[in-house]
Amino acid sequence: MSELEKAVSYLKAGEWQRAHAIVQEDESALGNWAHGIVHMLEGDMDNARYWYRRAGRPLQAGARPDDEIAALDRTLKEKQP
Which of 63, 43, 64, 47 has the alpha carbon at shortest distance from 55? Predict the structure, then answer.
C-alpha cells in the first residue's frame, strides 16, 4: 500500500489528522487533492480551495468530502497496474 493509499484509508475513517501527516509530504497532484480533502474535513475551505488549485481540480460548490474521498480512491485504483 502506498503512502497516499494509507492517507485515503485514514480519510475514509475520518482520521484527517493522520492523513494530513502523510499528504503534506506529497507534492503530486493526487497528494494535493488529498490535502484539499483534509482541509475540507477540517472545515478550512479557503485552504481546501488552495490545495485543489494546486491539484489542478476545481472545488465545486457543495462538494461533499465523502464524495471527494470516494473519487480520489477510484482514481488511485485506476492508476494501479
Answer: 47
Q: How many CA atoms lie less than 13 Å away from 76 in the CB half-sphere?
A: 20
Residue 16 half-sphere exposure toward CB, CA atoms < 13 A = 15
| Angle in degrees, 0-180, between the axes of helices 29-42 and 3-12, rounded to the nearest 10 | 20
Question: Could you tell me the mean pLDDT of each successive run of 10 residues in the chain, 81 residues long?
Answer: 94 95 96 97 95 95 95 91 65
Report d(CA 60, CA 6) in Å as an integer. 25
32 close to 55: Cβ distance less than 8 angstroms: yes
Cα–Cα distance measured from residue 26 to residue 20, given in angstroms and rounded to the nearest whole number: 10
Q: If residue 80 lies in a helix (H) or strand (E), which one and from where to where?
A: none
CA–CA separation, 67 and 73 (whole Å): 10
